[in-house]
């Protein structure tokens, strides 16, 4: 009987939103009240009654009490600044521990890419499901698919498509990956998280290490996330720890004709005077995971981004955070699927699958998959939970 | 454009549950497969196809690759143990910072209980809504309610009912508070969080400090939560940081006839032989917030609790965590309502309220409140969001 007690599960943005709503509400209320005597009377009744919001309750308090509440708020701001220092120290700890994890991650990289072979001791693993696996093993013998597996055995180097499989298993990533990205991602050999040096502004970088390939000449693609660990001056109470506030990509040195982030389209142009028509080619942006390395710029001049850009940027920050917090530290569990969370309708899915096994619905499902050419049919349906 | 990047938002219990479901599923599958040749054929088709779960995909891999995956899992367990040490150091940091917050919390306690009066500098506060507050001020003059406020002004000590108001504002707590708990909670003067000493098993205590009162003679009621920061041997991958694993209350020295956690009922007993009837009185448990100090015992002998008890205990752990992480560090924001989160139907509530102001529905709402004697009608309806 355990309860997870990780740091707060609420997001700062939630509380900001709530504050805004509350503020709009109050303004509306004040307008109505000042214009309408009936409303005024109704409000008076509400004040006499106790059906008050906490903030309107505060308004009914004597001045001396309000003054003390203001003093408490001032103390609260001081707490927020101490909390900011706490998170900076946590960041230092994370840097310290990154160094402790690194030798294990290096071993991981070697096993994945076939640079080293685990010893018997290193590969010993007692699965909880050993009996089950034995059963599955018997089954395989029965249906003679093992031959195929054995045939390739001697040549296989490391764990093929390790990182690419993770991209397929994790919804948040597979949504970004296009068919033409796949052969490129198969060259991905490692992802590393690097923290900013002590004394530097708080940030972390994701390093995507690629083997030599026909697509670009970079061996590493990087994405850096800048963070902020200080209470906002205009809204200090919304502070909930470090936040990602900006990010920066890198230039990909695409080989000729291999840039998947643009596509070439042909366009007809008519000469205004002469009326002659010519065809020009034009490069336009193309959907691709590799756009991850050319993020939208956070406007620095106080101008706000449009809603679409804000959404895109928020999604990008979420992905960066997810790489850092989940995928890089526990890659093997995203590869095997053990870390893939069940979503709300897990129960339904499960029952659905049992039905399929017993009846003919499975065939239907496959037809669905084939009828959608964009859908990667090699994507296991059940991996899509995260 | 910020994104909160606090520690993982997933709970360990979620992933444990997911793992269990997945395991049950596999067992069922194996049973069906071995008994039914048609199912066997269907499964074979599934294997040839790529509609595989990540784990069944793993099963199709050559032995040498599986061996490397096992090596990665072994490394992953080592990572979990390093992570456990990380969280122990975070706990040390929290202890260090608790000492830095304490002077501010002591000041808070003094202002709340009228032990000290803030200076002008200490109570300076520029509200974002100053204009709005001015409007509200004008309004008050108009409806002459200020007189009432001014009248009490000179006598009011500190911030009356500070902690009690927080109990009313926070759903999770107000649900536990009975009408007869309220006069007791009005004597609550402070809540403190104390961390376990360095080198001791990880735990924290909540101290509820009460002023002298007619109900019990304790000046402090305590609740201690024991924590664990180590990966579970049978399920190391579910580790997500320290978890509350047990808790302990304290004995409340109730004054005669004041114990709200029991009630006396009269019961008629019939003598088996003689047939005479006598009336006995019996003490039975009674709903009360103060049951918080007599939690269910976590069974130590490996016997599992029944479902109800597990639920009660999980709710208790959640409350303990909430006091520690949210209420104690930011009490004033729960008093003013600024920290009260909007729940999903905030929008609906808001619209509902506007209608009430314009029409007659308010009266209806009050009737509802009055028709339920258990409902505390002094409880502001809108405070009930959290």
Automatic annotation (TrEMBL), chains A, B:
Entry's Gene Ontology cellular component terms: nucleus
Start and end residues of each stretch annotated as Disordered: 1-31, 339-386
Biased composition (Acidic residues): 339-370
A biological process from GO: nucleosome assembly
Superkingdom of source: Eukaryota
Gene3D superfamilies: 1.20.5.1500, Nucleosome assembly protein
Signal peptide start and end residues: none
Main localisation: nucleus
Subcellular location: Nucleus
Keywords carried by this UniProt record: Nucleus
Keyword Ribosomal protein: no
InterPro entries in the cross-refs: NAP-like_sf (IPR037231), NAP_family (IPR002164)
Family: Belongs to the nucleosome assembly protein (NAP) family.
PANTHER family in UniProt: TESTIS-SPECIFIC Y-ENCODED PROTEIN
UniProt protein name: Nucleosome assembly protein 1 like 4
Originating organism: Falco tinnunculus (Common kestrel)
């Amino acid at each position: 009987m355990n309860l997870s007690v990780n740091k707060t599960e609420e997001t700062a943005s939630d509380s900001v939103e709530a504050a805004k709503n509350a503020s709009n509400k109050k303004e509306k209320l004040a307008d109505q009240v000042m214009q309408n005597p009936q409303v005024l009377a109704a409000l008076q009744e509400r004040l006499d009654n106790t059906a008050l919001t906490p903030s309107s309750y505060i308004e009914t308090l004597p001045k001396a009490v309000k003054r003390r509440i203001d003093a408490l708020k001032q103390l609260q701001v001081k707490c927020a600044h101490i909390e900011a220092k706490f998170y900076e120290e946590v960041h230092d700890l994370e840097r310290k521990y990154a160094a402790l994890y690194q030798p294990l991650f290096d071993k991981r990289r070697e096993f994945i890419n076939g640079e080293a072979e685990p010893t018997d001791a290193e590969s010993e693993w007692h699965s909880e499901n050993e009996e089950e696996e034995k059963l599955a093993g018997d089954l395989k013998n029965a249906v003679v698919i093992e031959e195929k597996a054995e045939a390739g055995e001697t040549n296989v180097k490391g764990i093929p498509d390790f990182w690419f499989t993770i991209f397929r298993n994790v919804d948040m990533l597979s949504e970004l990956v296009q068919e033409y990205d796949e052969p490129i991602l198969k060259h991905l050999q490692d992802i590393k998280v690097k923290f900013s040096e002590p004394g530097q502004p708080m940030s972390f970088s994701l390093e995507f290490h690629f083997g030599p390939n026909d697509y670009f000449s970079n061996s590493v693609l990087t994405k850096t996330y800048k963070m902020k660990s200080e209470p906002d001056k205009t809204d200090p109470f919304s502070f909930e720890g470090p936040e990602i506030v900006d990010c920066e990509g890198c230039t990909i040195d695409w080989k000729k004709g291999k840039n998947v982030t643009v596509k070439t389209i042909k366009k007809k142009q008519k000469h205004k005077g002469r009326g002659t028509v010519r065809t020009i080619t034009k490069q336009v942006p193309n959907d691709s995971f590799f756009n991850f390395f050319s993020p939208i710029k956070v406007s620095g001049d106080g101008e706000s981004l449009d809603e679409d850009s804000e959404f895109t940027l928020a999604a990008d920050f979420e992905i960066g955070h997810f790489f850092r917090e989940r995928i890089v530290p526990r890659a093997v569990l995203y590869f095997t699927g053990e870390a893939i969370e069940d979503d709300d309708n897990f129960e339904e899915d499960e029952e659905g699958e049992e039905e399929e096994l017993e009846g003919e619905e499975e065939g239907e499902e496959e037809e669905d998959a084939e009828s959608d050419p964009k859908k990667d049919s090699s994507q296991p349906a059940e991996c899509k939970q995260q």
